[in-house]
């Protein structure tokens, strides 16, 4: 058996898979950025203001909501997107992916923020720094390892999601990678060569990024928040 790149050429050049790749990159990046920004503020609030009435209840509510299976919400979400005229748009995927990503990312960041000494923040407040100044000038740089780990989770979640992307998008020009795989499977036949090549195209970039970011996470954690 002779190795060949024929199926990779077919997938990347002779099909719409390149479009799906760009769509996934855009949707995953936007989901990650929005989720990280919202989760950063939410996690800091849960960590530093947990004794404020209602704050902890909101955090627990987010966690409980995350336990709801996605398949139970497909019909309500579809009806909402249809009434909001968001079907066959990037916004439908970004909104739903962000909604399901934020609770997990928030609690991941909260556990890291809990380990940061509050004395650093109090010193900054004495020097006249505002709350947002503390978050973006002190907490953010110290939290780089946690931000990388949670950002990777958010990106991979959006990158590999299938059910919602398949439900909300019927326009082939807007499909993402995993729903796009279904087009390589017919009713009675499966193009296994192209299907396997497409699967590798999906997995390899994420795997390479994970290996690289894993090194960054380890280096950041060994440096720790004792810096500064």
TrEMBL record:
User: Does the record bear Amino-acid biosynthesis in its keywords?
Assistant: no
User: ABC transmembrane type-1 domain: from which residue to which, for each copy?
Assistant: 21-213
A Pfam family assignment? BPD_transp_1
What kind of membrane protein is this, topologically? Multi-pass membrane protein
Keywords, A to Z? Answer: Cell membrane, Membrane, Transmembrane, Transmembrane helix, Transport
Q: Where are the transmembrane segments?
A: 25-46, 58-81, 93-113, 134-156, 192-213
Q: Where in the cell is it found?
A: Cell membrane
Q: What family, per the record?
A: Belongs to the binding-protein-dependent transport system permease family.
Xref: PANTHER family: INNER MEMBRANE ABC TRANSPORTER PERMEASE PROTEIN YCJP, MALTOSE TRANSPORT SYSTEM PERMEASE-RELATED
**Name of the protein in question:** ABC-type glycerol-3-phosphate transport system permease component
Source organism per UniProt: Ammoniphilus resinae
